[in-house]
Write a structure and sequence with these properties.
Number of strands: 10
Helix content: 25-40%
Oligomer: single chain
Shape: globular
Strand content: 25-35%
Structural class: alpha/beta
Radius of gyration: 17 Å
Largest sheet: 6 strands, mixed
Length: 228
């Protein structure tokens, strides 16, 4: 099993709210998985637990053969070299160029400059932003900024790509173009786990769909279809 989630529970001590309640889940290498559900269902929290932005109250997240809840700080850095994250709000460096935003991910894992200056233009070409590395990211459209975020997430060839509502602020055409890019990334072997409430995208893609409600898994099916 590539990713195994065992009895995962997340509570917030401030108000005793149970966000995730005894989640058990297996995801195979190379899968494309949608996490769906209403706002507050636990989708974003599960994504954060999977890439160690938060820790569970109890239970385990096992990637490969390692429990990521017990990793040392150095081991977490190594884990993040093999994972990429795309956020709904992009989280770009607003005063930096497109090139520098993408290069940041390579600098974070201490890749040499000679490799960075070759790799970044290649990945920008792949996401449809070839020749635009010198532009400030704030001069781009929302869809283009999200493409920069995707480029940053995949620049280090991650084994796993997490995406948290990546199309939430995009128009339908831009969303469709972005999903085609995610599909191409998945076809290279990258496992993709995406949180979304976009029914149109889920229905079009026909991938595995895991539905959450009140912190529990209420449905898990291949070729999932959501009622409009």
């Amino acid at each position: 099993m590539f990713i195994q989630i065992v009895n995962l529970t997340k509570k917030y001590d401030i108000n005793g709210l149970v966000v995730l309640d005894n989640i058990n889940l297996n995801i195979e290498k190379g899968e494309f998985v949608f996490l769906t559900g209403l706002s507050g269902a636990g989708k974003s929290t599960l994504i954060k637990l999977l890439f160690c932005e938060e820790l569970p109250s109890s239970g385990q997240v096992i990637i490969g053969s390692r429990s990521i809840c017990r990793l040392s700080r150095r081991e977490k850095v190594l884990l993040r070299r093999n994972t990429g994250v795309v956020f709904q709000d992009f989280r770009l460096m607003e005063r930096a160029s497109v090139f520098d935003n993408v290069a940041f991910a390579m600098k974070a894992v201490e890749r040499p400059w000679e490799e960075i200056k070759v790799r970044v233009p290649e990945i920008l070409e792949r996401v449809g932003l070839g020749g635009r590395g010198n532009e400030n990211v704030m001069h781009l459209s929302g869809g283009e900024q999200q493409r920069v975020a995707v480029a940053r997430a995949i620049i280090n060839n991650p084994l796993i790509l997490f995406a948290d509502e990546p199309t939430g602020d995009l128009d339908p055409q831009t969303s469709e173009e972005l999903m085609q890019l995610f599909l191409e990334i998945n076809q290279t072997g990258t496992t993709i786990i995406m949180a979304t409430h976009d029914k149109a995208i889920v229905n079009q893609m026909q991938k595995r769909v895991i539905m959450l409600s009140d912190g529990k898994i209420v449905s898990d099916k291949m070729g999932g279809w959501l009622m409009r």
